[in-house]
């Protein structure tokens, strides 16, 4: 359903009443900023009902002043200028097209009514030239009228409309906004007028109109007096004149933001004009009631909670900056005692003491009047106190009935009592009335009246509109944030009103013109994220909460604006199990298994029921809050804070508010803490708690596992390939969660990343989720995947990961190991970083599976790789409904966005710099000066930020020395600073290098694109003869003078530093190099939808824009255009990130060759490897070495994994391989996987254990691989052959044939290609020596080959 405002409306006419002129200017501003118009309104007219010219001129003066306030607010970042950022809290989809509107004064006009002839004085507009005063003629055909009812007796509404609305001409439309207490009288008068004039009316009844929800915190102060009940109550609490509200804590507040009410009216008008809102043919009056629905509304108890969380924390800071001491130093508020509220709200000792509260309120009222004797400020203060009294009286169930003038009786008594007890003469305002206020201010303060009864038809119209928007598709749902009370972020909204009230009292009442900065509101969860330090908010002044903080947290955390706790839905209920077992395909499978196994059907059903009981969660509040309290204690012990991106709540809030959507949380997986932090955050935010997919390993934790299950964890086996029943039941369990619109959390990487890099996606659970959407259904319209980046300044399992990568087995998840790990509670681990990314819509990928990130182009259709058939196929879990291309694209995009959300820490910066400098020979004994380390850390920080890397704000602005200190603090005792200000590394421990690599790998995704180009250029680029002159890549960040003295592990050219390639050559080399790294850099995997030309252009531009690593202009589209690469600090650094990965590939292929040779030739020993230099006779080519291997040899997978790791350690010990981190078990495993994917190693299905043999016929094997399609998305087997180019490496002299589409098609080419990338002289001789070393390792271990 498309929502569009009628084109016939050219102008808005706001029917002004002097008593509410501020509201009308505010309405003009709201129309101007409305999402319907996005600042493109051509004409907004304020038409006054008065006939007196002098009053009209004063109206112009007022409009001039208030529009100046608007523009001043815009200039200071408030008002309309901040609409886009504030509206961002509603939804990214809805506000994506909202732009900053032009100043309101450019479209605002002031005019007399059409039935008066008032002369116009041009001198009245000199202060604001764009504000023209003209005679005005209204038109029912092209004008839309807005009338805010206030200060007018309901019986006289018809006469007022007759004076204001044009009589001549065609009938038009009028929007009326009125309080609900006079709804029946208003409706009767307007219906009578509509019957006579044939005009159309849309009446919006709001209980309590309040400031706009999308305005700036210091919302424009249009009014001379506070208008709404919410503002008056906020002010009364902070001034101490309100200590108790005469309402129950659970009573619906009925607060409706003005912009939401206005947008609802405009939306209703649009829907009626397009016949989208069902109405009868003769219906001329449509009434909409907002704010009466308990499930959609705020309750007074939560209003008090939000107000006290601001004033109760910051009252000292507020009084410190206020020009006069007029705010309460100990504010508090209680509510009427009601039995139903005791469970949710409890009761304070002072709640029943109404007389006690009244006594303190009167004392504060006296003190405020005594501070301003005989002055105009006293007059303003009387109006303020009168408005506060009236607001409280309106809430009382025994308040007086509305008088004909719209005011509530009984208002003058409290004001008179105040004046008498103050002992001062009352300063009588002009046009004095019985309550001491002039008619304008009196009616303005009485705008929000007590709740009246709305009829079912009025409420149902509003519900019908919301239902139509929810079911009208994305185009209609984008309007929900602007009309649905559910989309208002109530906590920050109320607190922003509190802040606005403070600015109002200082500016309007005290007439203070100097800027004052009051404390900005923080959410209630602030201190649950900031555990230590000066950034913590002050404690609240309520002594019961300060005395029992943990009890208060457990009872009140996650309380929603309606006063209720989060609704929890257990996934493993009896009803859900029965529903799953009753599914037709489950019953069919059960019958089939019963026949195959010759057992009774009931036995299979009992097993199925037991499986579901083992899978399902039992989410409940008791266990959730118990575990939450334990997690909170652990977090406060281990961490300093949880850093959360500023728009995280807005993103999650809007995602969960989307109608008919299922939200899937996908965090990065770096630590066991990942399981806990997302649920912890969502509970505190009052958002739905996710069902978390966990491994069955955790079931060994006993009681902890029970708490996890009760907090939403459901458990799955690591593998269930051979159990069709388990697979089908688990898939159906996921399907029920997704179809039920419940939140699910799983880790797309499958397991914790031990290396610090993002791992390639696992598609099993993702496929179950997407199948639930693509299968024919009508329960949900979309699935939103929300990537959540997680990183840690100090990794809890960092030392354990380093040991695992060095070959030490992983500890099992048992109670005993859990108790042993309790020693970690004695240390501090810095900060935890959580960054919530933008949701990814599955529906959008269904419409376009080839989406690419912003800034890139799609792969041309002719070049797209076919990823298999999209037809359904039968699997253990039932049908497959997701097209393979869509599944691959969604997985790739989730992983891509997940990497972009990773926050880079100071520890990662220091680790990367330490690897580059502390490994240099001259620094191993003397250390590196701290100044050099700090300058390089600062340089690296700038490079990360330039490429859009995420960093916390505090680290983005501090100097390099602070960053270095933070990093060293988290890396101690592996890295430390000596008393002489030199940085040292504990090189005696092999795991130190591995630990540094784990942290520095966080940077890989930031620099991977440019690193590929630089490595390709310096490996294959044309340049001078290098000889043996080289520079250590591991010392890349050392100053040039120091770098000349450093000897090599990996090498980059120094003499004649430019390396030149054509664009075509660069493209030809980048393709196989990206494939080579695809298992380490998921962005390079084959489902990547980005065209190679687009990727190349963007990467070259980044290199050119930053660090000047390229000479000339790299934007030519010609493939023959030369690109010259310069050896810069940046070029040296980024290649250092890739060298260990290239080395791992070299070690893996050497190990495969050694295991596949018929006889092991044990030549040089481990202690005395052969050495070959460039001046000696040429060694045999790598091709000759490889051809000695036999394709008949069967290579066991477990033996190969063990051998590659031992071979890497041996080669490093013998100084053949320079990088210890190349021996990482994860990297070597990825290299073996790459050989399998490319067909170099052929799996042997007949073998009882996973095993391989070498490919016999490369051409035939390549063709076979390309015909296999996607089984588990083995996308690297799917390339097609194309033209090749022969490029000679200047470093090795080896002529390497590189395909523009595929990696080398034989193991010979593969080894030559890797050798060229290693920058090692005499690589062929090194290869022969390395094979001998590996063969010796193999023979010493006594491994026989089958």
Automatic annotation (TrEMBL):
Pfam family, one: GPAT_C
Any one GO cellular component localisation term in the record: mitochondrial membrane
Keyword Ubl conjugation: no
Subcellular location field: Endomembrane system
Membrane topology: Peripheral membrane protein
Similarity annotation: Belongs to the GPAT/DAPAT family.
Native source organism of the sequence: Bodo saltans (Flagellated protozoan)
Name of the protein described by the UniProt record: Acyltransferase, putative
Matches recorded under CDD domains: LPLAT_DHAPAT-like (cd07993)
Domain Phospholipid/glycerol acyltransferase: 663-793
Coiled-coil features, chain-numbered ranges: none
Residue span of region Disordered: 92-116, 1247-1275
PANTHER family noted in UniProt: DIHYDROXYACETONE PHOSPHATE ACYLTRANSFERASE, GLYCEROL-3-PHOSPHATE ACYLTRANSFERASE
Keywords, ordered alphabetically: Acyltransferase, Membrane, Transferase
Gene Ontology biological process terms in this record: fatty acid metabolic process; glycerol-3-phosphate metabolic process; phospholipid biosynthetic process; triglyceride biosynthetic process
Record flagged with keyword NADP: no
GO molecular function: glycerol-3-phosphate O-acyltransferase activity
């Amino acid at each position: 359903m498309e929502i569009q405002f009628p084109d016939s409306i050219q102008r808005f006419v706001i029917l002004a009443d002097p008593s509410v002129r501020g509201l009308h200017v505010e309405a003009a501003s709201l129309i101007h900023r409305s999402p319907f118009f996005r600042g493109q309104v051509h004409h907004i007219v304020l038409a006054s009902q008065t006939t007196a010219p002098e009053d009209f001129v004063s109206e112009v003066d007022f409009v001039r002043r208030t529009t100046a306030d608007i523009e001043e607010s815009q200039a200071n970042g408030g008002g309309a200028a901040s609409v886009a950022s504030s509206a961002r809290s509603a939804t990214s989809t809805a506000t994506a097209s909202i732009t900053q509107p032009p100043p309101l004064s450019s479209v605002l006009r002031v005019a007399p009514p059409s039935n008066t002839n008032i002369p116009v004085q041009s001198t009245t507009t000199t202060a604001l030239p764009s504000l023209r005063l003209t005679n005005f003629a209204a038109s029912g055909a092209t004008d839309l009228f807005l009338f805010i009812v206030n200060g007018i007796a309901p019986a006289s509404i018809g006469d007022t409309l007759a004076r204001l609305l044009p009589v001549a001409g065609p009938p038009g439309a009028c929007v009326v906004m009125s309080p609900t207490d006079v709804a029946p009288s208003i409706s009767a008068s307007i219906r009578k007028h509509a019957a006579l004039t044939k005009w159309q009316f849309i009446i919006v009844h709001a209980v309590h109109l309040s400031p706009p929800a999308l305005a700036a915190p210091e919302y424009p102060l249009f009014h001379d007096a506070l208008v709404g009940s919410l503002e008056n109550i906020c002010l009364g609490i902070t001034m101490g004149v309100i200590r108790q509200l005469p309402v129950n804590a659970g009573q619906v507040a009925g607060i409706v933001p003005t912009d939401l009410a206005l947008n609802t009216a405009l939306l209703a008008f649009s829907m009626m004009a397009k016949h989208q809102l069902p109405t009868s043919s003769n219906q001329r009056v449509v009434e909409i009631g907002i704010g009466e629905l308990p499930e959609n509304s705020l309750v007074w108890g939560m209003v008090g909670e939000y107000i006290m969380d601001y004033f109760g924390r910051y009252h000292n800071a507020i009084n410190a900056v206020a020009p006069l001491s007029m705010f309460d130093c100990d504010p508090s508020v209680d509510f009427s005692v009601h039995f139903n509220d005791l469970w949710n709200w409890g009761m304070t000792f002072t709640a029943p003491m109404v007389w006690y509260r009244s006594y303190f309120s009167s004392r504060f009222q006296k003190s405020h009047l005594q501070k301003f004797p005989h002055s105009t400020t006293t007059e303003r203060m009387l109006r303020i106190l009168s408005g506060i009294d009236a607001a409280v009286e309106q809430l009382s169930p025994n308040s007086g009935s509305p008088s004909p003038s719209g005011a509530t009786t009984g208002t003058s008594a409290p004001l008179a009592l105040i004046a008498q007890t103050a002992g001062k003469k009352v300063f009588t305002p002009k046009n004095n009335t019985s309550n001491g206020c002039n008619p304008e201010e009196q009616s303005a303060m009485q705008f929000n009246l007590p709740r009246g009864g709305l009829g079912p038809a009025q409420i149902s119209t509003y519900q019908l509109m919301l239902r139509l928007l929810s079911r009208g598709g994305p185009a209609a749902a984008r309007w929900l944030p602007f009309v649905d009370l559910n989309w208002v972020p109530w906590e920050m909204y109320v607190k922003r009103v509190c802040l606005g009230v403070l600015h109002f009292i200082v500016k309007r009442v005290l007439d203070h013109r100097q800027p004052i900065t009051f404390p900005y509101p923080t959410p209630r969860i602030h201190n649950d994220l900031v555990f230590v330090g000066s950034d913590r908010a002050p404690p609240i002044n309520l002594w019961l909460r300060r005395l029992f903080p943990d009890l208060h947290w457990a009872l009140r955390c996650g309380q929603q604006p309606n006063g209720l706790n989060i609704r929890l839905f257990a996934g493993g209920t009896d009803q859900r199990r029965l529903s799953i077992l009753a599914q037709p395909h489950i019953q069919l499978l059960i019958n089939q298994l019963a026949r195959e196994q010759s057992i009774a059907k009931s036995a299979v059903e009992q097993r199925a029921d037991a499986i579901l009981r083992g899978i399902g969660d039992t989410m409940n509040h008791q266990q959730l809050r118990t575990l939450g309290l334990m997690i909170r204690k652990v977090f406060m012990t281990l961490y300093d804070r949880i850093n959360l991106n500023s728009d995280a709540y807005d993103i999650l809030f809007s995602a969960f508010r989307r109608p008919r959507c299922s939200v899937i949380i996908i965090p990065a997986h770096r630590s066991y803490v990942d399981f806990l932090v997302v649920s912890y955050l969502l509970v505190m935010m009052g958002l739905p708690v996710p069902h978390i997919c966990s491994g069955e390993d955790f079931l060994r934790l006993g009681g902890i596992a029970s708490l996890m299950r009760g907090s939403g964890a459901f458990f799955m086996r690591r593998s269930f390939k051979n159990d069709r029943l388990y697979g089908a039941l688990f898939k159906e369990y996921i399907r029920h969660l997704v179809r039920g619109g419940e939140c699910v959390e799983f880790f797309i990487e499958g397991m914790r990343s031990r290396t610090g890099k993002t791992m390639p996606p696992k598609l099993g659970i993702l496929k179950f989720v997407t199948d639930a959407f693509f299968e024919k259904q009508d329960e949900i319209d979309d699935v939103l995947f929300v990537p959540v980046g997680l990183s840690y300044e100090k990794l809890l399992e960092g030392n354990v990961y380093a040991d695992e990568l060095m070959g030490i087995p992983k500890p099992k998840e048992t109670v005993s190991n859990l108790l042993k790990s309790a020693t970690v509670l004695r240390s501090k681990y810095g900060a935890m970083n959580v960054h919530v990314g933008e949701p990814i819509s599955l529906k959008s990928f269904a419409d376009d599976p080839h989406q690419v990130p912003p800034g890139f182009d799609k792969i041309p259709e002719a070049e797209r790789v076919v990823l298999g058939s999209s037809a359904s196929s039968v699997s253990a879990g039932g049908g497959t409904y997701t097209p393979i291309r869509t599944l691959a694209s969604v997985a790739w995009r989730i992983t891509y966005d997940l990497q972009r959300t990773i926050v880079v820490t100071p520890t990662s910066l220091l680790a990367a710099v330490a690897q580059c400098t502390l490994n240099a020979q001259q620094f191993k004994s003397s250390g590196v000066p701290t100044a050099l380390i700090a300058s390089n850390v600062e340089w690296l920080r700038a490079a990360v930020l330039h490429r859009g890397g995420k960093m916390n704000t505090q680290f983005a602005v501090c100097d390099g020395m602070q960053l270095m200190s933070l990093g060293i603090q988290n890396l101690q005792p592996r890295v430390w600073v000596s008393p002489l200000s030199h940085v040292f590394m504990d090189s005696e421990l092999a795991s130190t290098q591995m630990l540094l690599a784990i942290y520095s790998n966080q940077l890989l995704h930031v620099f991977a694109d440019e690193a590929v180009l630089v490595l390709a250029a310096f490996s294959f680029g044309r340049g001078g003869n290098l000889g043996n002159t080289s520079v250590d890549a591991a010392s890349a960040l050392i100053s040039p003078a120091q770098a000349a003295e450093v000897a090599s592990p990996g090498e980059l050219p120094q003499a004649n530093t430019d390396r030149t390639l054509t664009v075509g050559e660069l493209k030809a080399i980048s393709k196989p190099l990206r494939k080579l790294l695809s298992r380490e850099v998921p962005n390079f995997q084959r489902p990547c939808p980005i065209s190679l030309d687009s990727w190349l252009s963007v990467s070259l531009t980044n290199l050119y824009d930053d660090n000047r690593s390229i000479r000339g202009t790299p934007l030519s589209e010609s493939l023959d255009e030369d690109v010259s690469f310069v050896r810069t600090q940046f070029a040296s650094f980024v290649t250092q990130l890739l060298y260990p990965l290239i080395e791992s590939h070299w070690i893996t292929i050497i190990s495969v060759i050694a295991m596949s040779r018929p006889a092991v030739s044990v030549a040089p020993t481990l202690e005395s490897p052969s050495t070959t230099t460039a001046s000696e006779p040429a060694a045999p080519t790598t091709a000759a070495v490889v051809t000695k291997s036999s394709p008949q040899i069967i290579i066991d997978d477990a033996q190969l994994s063990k051998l590659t790791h031992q071979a890497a350690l041996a080669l490093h010990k013998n100084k053949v391989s320079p990088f210890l981190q190349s021996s990482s078990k994860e990297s070597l495993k990825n290299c073996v996987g790459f050989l399998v994917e490319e067909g170099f190693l052929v799996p042997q299905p007949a073998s009882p254990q996973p095993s391989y043999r070498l490919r016999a016929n490369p051409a035939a094997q390549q063709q076979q691989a390309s015909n296999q399609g996607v089984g588990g998305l083995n996308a690297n087997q799917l390339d097609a052959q194309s033209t090749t180019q022969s490029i000679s490496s200047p470093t090795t002299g080896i002529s390497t044939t590189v395909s523009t589409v595929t990696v080398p098609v034989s193991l010979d080419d593969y080894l030559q290609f890797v050798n060229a990338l290693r920058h090692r002289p005499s690589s062929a001789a090194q290869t022969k020596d390395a094979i001998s070393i590996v063969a010796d390792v193999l023979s010493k271990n006594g491994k026989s080959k089958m």
